[in-house]
Specification:
about 475 residues; two-stranded antiparallel sheet; 2 strands; about 65% helix
Length: about 475
């Protein structure tokens, strides 16, 4: 274990994050909102801590091993989540305690979007900008982690998708060096953010709201500057723009990279994961709109408007809201909530189990049915007419099993803190899938639950964002042996 190299990298992360606090400082000065000193203090503290980590090991140059990568991937969000608490604690408004500040910070970094704060309209503009910016930076970190880093460690959805799956991305390998890959992904991510902000602005949002909501939309985070979320604007055009960019951000960014590099869109329609993703979305949309209309909850036009927005927002794990889906009739709250378990595509800013895993689990289920009819037949699981190796199928089932076990353990732990079954079930599912809103007592915010529950849910956010194994492997004694 190269602890000196890890300390050097974490120091660099912290110093870079301190520089990222500069935009909120400028916003605070511009609006004279009283939070300037809090951000300046936070910036100095974060930079000082990072510099302290980096200075003694600044000259260390060692090759990172696989185990180092696991530890760095886990410490990235934990360290920056801790650093991100400072502005929330130091500013008089909101003036959060440590547990609340860490929950809010980590929720932003992991793009979960669960919040402990209400009265967002009355917060300083710089705090609003800052929490949205956390989601934007976290979203980019997720993409780089999923597309460039986790495949090198032999884990993560992209390992399944790019290393073994057929299709246009199999042999492209993005770019041969991680630095070049990260740079290309940043360009794409920045372009989508600017395009989203301009579209929001043109649709009637103020410039400030347009920019910060573009952060949360492309990052699929779901934070807003208003308690009513996107519903505050009451604009079908703004909602349509949000739907479009949520869907784009929920697709594999490797596909966007391929389109950018080769100036073509044809490969999108050849991608099995994308086709399955839109098939699931279409089926969910039909059921949601039909149920809302049939039960008389809304007229047909409103059923399409509110049903489609909430479905896309929840299914992509963004978590924006225009209507409180938790009080919708019949099966709709559970249907939408279950859609989040599928989540976005691999290599996207979305959460959930990832579409490619669900697709493979479905195909394996179909194969087992066929085996009951033809016990001696050799029936491979195929994607785009090519067989998927057994090792990949084993990895999918292993992930699914750990996902269910993690969900059950965290749900029981939450119930032990005093939460009811519906609240505990939805809170764990929401945080594990990096969704944000839940059902029951957490349908609007998480501020009323106990600090113990918040710490448990913060751990759940990390488990979900790091795809479980990245964090659980650190608990293995074998990992720490030299």
């Amino acid at each position: 274990m190269h602890l000196t190299v890890i300390a050097r990298i974490l120091g660099i992360f912290l110093m870079l994050f301190s520089i990222a606090i500069l935009p909120p400082i400028l916003v605070s000065v511009w609006y004279d909102d009283g939070a300037t000193s809090a951000f300046i203090t936070a910036m100095a503290l974060v930079f000082g801590i990072g510099f302290t980590f980096w200075l003694p090991v600044r000259s260390v140059r060692q090759e990172l091993r696989t185990r180092d990568g696991f530890l760095i991937a886990a410490l990235f969000w934990l360290t920056l989540g801790l650093a991100g608490t400072l502005p929330f604690m130091l500013s008089e408004n909101p003036g959060l305690g440590f547990a609340d500040a860490f929950f809010e910070s980590l929720s932003g970094w992991t793009t979960t979007g669960a919040t402990v704060m209400t009265g967002l309209e009355f917060l300083p503009k710089s705090i609003l900008w800052y929490r949205q910016q956390l989601q934007w930076m976290g979203g980019m970190g997720i993409i780089v982690l999923a597309v460039a880093i986790l495949p090198m460690l032999g884990i993560g959805g992209m390992q399944l998708y790019r290393a073994e799956m057929p299709g246009p991305m199999k042999d492209s390998k993005l770019t041969p060096r991680i630095a070049e890959t990260a740079k290309a992904l940043w360009y794409i991510y920045l372009f989508l953010t600017i395009a989203c902000a301009l579209a929001y602005w043109a649709a009637g949002m103020g410039l400030f709201d347009a920019v910060v909501h573009s952060f949360a939309t492309v990052g699929i985070g779901g934070f807003s500057t208003y308690d009513a979320s996107i519903g505050h604007f009451d604009s079908p055009l703004i909602e349509a723009i949000a739907i479009f960019f949520m869907l784009i951000a929920a697709l594999n960014f490797s596909l966007h990279f391929y389109a950018w590099r080769n100036k073509t869109l044809s490969h999108y329609w050849q991608d099995s994961e994308l086709k399955f993703f839109f098939l699931v979305m279409a089926g969910g949309a039909v059921m949601t709109i039909s149920a809302l209309w049939y039960t008389g909850t809304f007229d047909f036009g409103q059923s399409v408007r509110y049903g489609l927005f909430e479905l896309v927002s929840v299914a992509t794990t963004a978590g924006f809201g225009t209507s409180d889906f938790s009080v919708w009739p019949v099966f709709l709250p559970v249907l939408l909530f279950m859609m989040a378990f599928i989540g976005g595509c691999t290599g996207s800013t979305g959460g959930g189990m990832k579409v490619i895993r669900v697709l493979l689990i479905y195909k394996q289920g179909v194969r087992e049915i066929h085996r009951l009819i033809h016990p001696n037949a050799v029936i491979p699981v195929k994607i785009s007419n090519r067989a998927v190796p057994g090792r990949i199928l084993d990895a999918v089932w292993g992930f699914f099993a750990m996902y269910i076990v993690t969900f059950m353990v965290m749900m029981l732990a939450l119930m032990a803190t005093g939460l009811d079954q519906v609240t505990a079930f939805s809170a764990v599912g929401s945080c594990l899938n990096n969704l944000g809103p839940g059902l029951g007592d957490v349908s609007t915010h998480y501020g009323d639950i106990s600090d113990t529950a918040k710490w448990l849910l913060a751990l759940t956010m990390l488990l979900g964002r790091l795809e479980i194994f990245t964090l659980l492997v650190l608990l293995s004694p074998r990992f720490w042996r030299s």
